Amino acid sequence: MSKTSTYHLLKKQSLTFLFCVFFFVGFSQESSEIIDSLKLTLKKVEQLPSSESNDTLKIKILEELVENIYEDEVWIIYNKKAKFVAQKLLQSKNQKIRKRAQVAYALAINDEGIYESNKGNNVLAKELFYKSTELLSKLQEDEHYAMALNNLGYAYKSDGDLVKALDFYLQSFKIREKINDLSGIAMSLNNIGLIYDVQGDLKKAKEYYLKCTTILEKSGDKYQLSSTLNNLANIYSRERYFNEAIEMYARSKVLQKSIGDINGEAYTYVNMGTVYESLRKNDEAITYYQKGYDLFKSLNFNEGVAWAYINLGKINFNIGNFKKSKQFLDSALILSTKISNPELIQRTENAYYILDSAQGNFAGAFDHFKKYIFYRDSITNKQSEQRNLQQQLNYEFDKKEAVLKEQQLKEKLVSEEKSRKQRLIIVVIIIVLVLVFFFTLFILRTLNLTKKQKAIIEKQKELVEIKQKEILDSIHYAKRIQDALLTSQSYIERNLNRLKRK
Question: pTM of the full predicted structure?
Answer without folding.
Answer: 0.59
